[in-house]
Amino acid sequence: MSVPLTLLGLLEREPSHGYDLKRDYDTFFGRGKPLPFGQVYSTLARLSRDGKIVMNEAEPGDGPDRKRYVITEQGATEVNAWLAEPVAPEPNLQSILFSKVVLALMLERPAEQYLDAQRAAHLQRMRELTEIKRGGGLVDGLLADHGLFHLEADLRWIDTTAARLDALRREVRR
């Protein structure tokens, strides 16, 4: 997730205070991983330094004066370019799952146990995501579906790899 570009996109929607940006980010994009306030303000400082946002006059609030951030034309152009550019299809041909299996075989460690443990971890996460789908709204459901589909693909790969471990073991030990 690109935090700077996401914050720029939220600012293109409407000028906002840092607190409001964090709330909106956490609501839509920070599921399970809220954005720390420090990261919000350091990102806003960089965006301001780079000419992508400006600060309006400070407004009085309950505590210190609140700064309202506004996107600049440069920032809006960057958001537009980012939205138009396709995301690189994942996964890359080299994954952590693959690397661990191959290294386990090279080091004569039990790759089968690793695959079994990974399968169990994936199934647990799938149960968690299914519960999120049941109890959440549309946004949560779509995010959970995205995760579930990736986990299903990983499980198919785990099963295929487990069935081919003997052949892979011979290949990597040559």
Short descriptors:
8 helices; 174 residues; 3 strands; mainly alpha; single chain; 5% strand; 3-stranded antiparallel beta sheet
| Class derived from helix and strand content | mainly alpha
| Order of helix and strand elements from N to C terminus | HEHHEEHHHHH
Main sheet summary: 3 strands, antiparallel
Continuous helix count: 8
What is the CA–CA distance across the termini? 40 Å
Strand order of the largest sheet: 1-3-2
The amount of beta strand, in percent, is 5-15%
Q: What best-fitting shape do the alpha-carbon axes yield?
A: elongated
Q: How many individual β-strands?
A: 3
What is the typical, i.e. mean, pLDDT?
Answer: 89
